[in-house]
Task: structure prediction
Amino acid sequence: MPKTTRRRVHKSHPKRVFDKYDLYMESVQSPDVDVLFYRKVYKELKKKEPKVMREDFCGTFALCTEWVKLSKHYKAYGIDLDPEPIEYGKSHYLSKLKEHEQKRITILEQDVLHKNLPKSDIVAAMNFSYFIFHKREQMKEYFRNVYSTLNSGGIFLIDVFGGSDCCDENEETTNLRKFKYFWHQRGFDPVTAKAKFNIHFQIKGQKKTEDVFTYDWRMWSIPELRETLEEVGFKKTHIYWEGTNKKGEGNGIFTRTEKGEECEAWIAYIASER
Result:
């Protein structure tokens, strides 16, 4: 018989399936923490408990699913025009909720400019989604619609970002546990304040997948947004600015203030009172 060599068998680990919504969630979202912040801001400004939240540009409506977990009395509405992320949210997030939690979520495939959107205590437009409105009149129309569909005493929450880094092309790489996340800004036009952004991903052991998500935005400043919000009727606007850690990086803690810091890149929230 021929001589044989004994070899150890190495078990191969299955490759991570490329799921763009799952990668996005792990890279940039923390909805369980976010909804606690929204509730905290509402209680701080209104001295009472919110019950109904609406998530505009909701995508996979992860915020809605986390909101209804906070209390059996809470309801959530999600609004988005794109059926693909909505279906993803139904199969991956909604399906994992308890039956009574599912019943307190309503997702509508509609335009955020629709005049008969559900009334709510909090409207949240996150991940800079409203930057798709390039013209001031478009932004005013959206803000006016939010104002008219908020309950009396409701608040409107948006996030906003900026800094000197946003005035030039750049790519930021974040190394996560099993993949890399790339935030790529493709230039900036100072005449129009428009910029295009892309998100790329690279799973370990696989090629980089580019332009997984693309954005064509106008870079709105905090004063522009506050003035527009006040023009449509909001009586007060408040800025929640992110603090910094010892390394000079954002620490994820947002505090109400009327004075920001000069940063290469910053993120803040604007809370507007009806």
Confidence is low (pLDDT under 50) at residues 1-13. Residues 31-46 form the longest helix (16 residues). The helical segments are 20-28, 31-46, 62-69, 83-92, 99-102, 136-148, 222-231.
